[in-house]
Each structure stands twice: as C-alpha cells, then as structure tokens.
Write a structure and sequence with these properties.
single chain; 7-stranded antiparallel beta sheet; 6-stranded antiparallel barrel
C-alpha cells in the first residue's frame, strides 16, 4: 500500500531551457569507454578537502549540474564535514589544464537528504538509503557548449530497461582512477531481481535504483560516486521539445565492489517521492 505522501501530486521541478542537450552522439557500447570530449556537459568533478589528525587530504566524487547554481551529488560524498568543496565543470581530461572549457566554483551551501544527513559511515547497502545531496555554488556558472545542465524528470516519471541510460565518471577502471571521463550504457533492473536472495537480499529500497548486469563485467566504481545516471525518455513519454534530451534518473551511490557478479550498481532514485519532494523544497527555498 502506498502512503499519503506517495499518492499526492507533486509539482514538477522547472528545467533550464538548454538542459539535457549533448554536443555529440554517444554510441551504444556495453563495456566502459571514453566519452567524446564534453559530450556529458552536466558532469561535475567534486573535490572534498578534509583535515584529520593534522593531516590534510582530498577525496573526489562526481556530480550533476541541474542549473546555473546547483549541483546534485551523493550524500556520502560530502559526509564528515569537509572544510572546502570545489566543483569543476567543463572537464574531460582532468590531468590537462582545459583552461578554455573549465569553470570552477566552491560550495556555498551543502544540503544532505534528511535520511542520510547524520550518517558519516556506511557499512552496508541499506545505509545508502536517501544517499543524495544538493550543493549550491558560490556563483552561477556560464551555460555554454561545454557546461550545460541535465534535465530533471517529473516526480511520476519512471525509468526501466526500455530507457537508454548511461553512467559516467572518472572512477577506477582496471584498478586505477581514469583521468579521461568514461561512460557505460547500463540497463535499469527490476527492484525485485536486485532484492533476490542471491543479490542484495531485500536491502534495495524504493529510494534506490539498481542498474547493470547480473553477470557483472561493468558498472560504477570507486570515484564515480555522486555522478549521474543519465537516461533518455522513451519516445512520446514527454513533450516533443524535450523527448530527445537526457534526464537524471539516478545518482551513483554504491554497490558490492565494482562489476561484481550478482551485485549491480546502486543509485539514489531521483523520482522517489521522499527524494523528489526534498529536492523541490530545497531548490524552492534556497
């Protein structure tokens, strides 16, 4: 049975007019591959700076630009109260200067979903429930051919195996972090399949999506956390002006190792009612 929150209509979040438009066609490749430069223009690189025991350290995550002022990432990426978060957009090769395309901002404000805002350690998949956060940038970015937001779906939108979806990031591949932005096409799987006893055994909640291949081989990995699962809508699913665009269906959250058999990657479900209502509230009041 659905609770009252899930059956009440939810206002759609307004999208930027240039959202979800890429600069080049992404071919359908099952295994991970490098992207064409700036073909995922909403992809953000987040750098979190911490001090612990007098030691200064940096961690990285992915994120998604949703308008000039806001980036979505995973809540666990910004746990443990980083002293500084920088957000880089317009990146492809993170070892290159990319001065012409790169835009850097700092985080002005960080909002973690209430389900996860007090969690600073994650021991199991169930701890990733509500693993989503919003970052308000210190100043608006300039929307151009290299930096563009992804579209946000409506609250009642559904994504499944019939959608073309891809995950992107600079996470590990072959044991080492990639310096070139990579992507993989992944199917969204039925939640019941992912909750079977030979997989996550009931730990995948309605606030999560499960995507990948039960046989393993490819998926999100360390360093991809917080990045986008970008999906195209099925034909005629939305107004024609937005039907050929990319939508943020999920945010990379975690899984059991990388590409492990029976354990596809897990994502925060952007259209889940508790998550979507929270996004609408934070964006509308900040």
């Amino acid at each position: 049975m659905l609770d009252a929150e899930e059956i009440q209509p939810i206002q759609a979040i307004r999208n930027h007019p240039r959202c979800g438009i890429t600069n080049s066609r992404i071919p359908r490749i099952v295994g991970g591959n490098t992207t064409s430069p700036h073909s995922v223009p909403w992809q953000a690189l987040l750098n979190m700076f911490h001090t612990s025991g007098g030691i200064f350290r940096k961690t990285t995550c992915g994120g998604s630009l949703i308008n000039e002022n806001w980036v979505i990432t995973a809540s666990h990426c910004v746990s443990n109260k980083p002293i500084l978060v920088t957000v880089e957009l317009g990146r492809h090769n993170i070892t290159a200067k990319e001065t012409y395309t790169k835009q850097i901002r700092t985080a002005k404000s960080i909002f973690r979903h209430p389900i996860s805002q007090h969690k600073d350690s994650y021991s199991d998949i169930k701890d990733l429930d509500g693993d989503i956060a919003l970052i308000k940038l210190s100043a608006p970015v300039t929307i151009n051919n290299f930096v563009r937001p992804i579209c946000l779906p409506a609250a009642n939108d559904t994504f499944n195996k019939f959608n073309l979806c891809k995950v992107s990031g600079w996470g590990r591949t072959a044991g080492q972090q990639s310096h070139i932005l990579r992507y993989a096409n992944l199917p969204i799987l039925n939640r019941k399949l992912c909750n079977s006893t030979f997989s996550y055994d009931g730990q995948i909640t309605s606030n999560m999506l499960c995507a990948g291949y039960m046989q393993g081989y490819t998926g999100a990995c360390f360093g991809d956390s917080g990045g986008p699962m970008s999906c195209r809508h099925r034909p005629n699913a939305v107004l024609s002006g937005y039907s050929n665009r990319w939508y943020l269906a999920g945010v990379v959250s975690g899984g059991r190792s990388c590409g492990r058999k029976h354990y596809p990657s897990v994502y925060a479900n952007v259209t889940a009612a508790p998550i979507y209502r929270w996004l609408l509230n934070i964006l509308g009041n900040n």
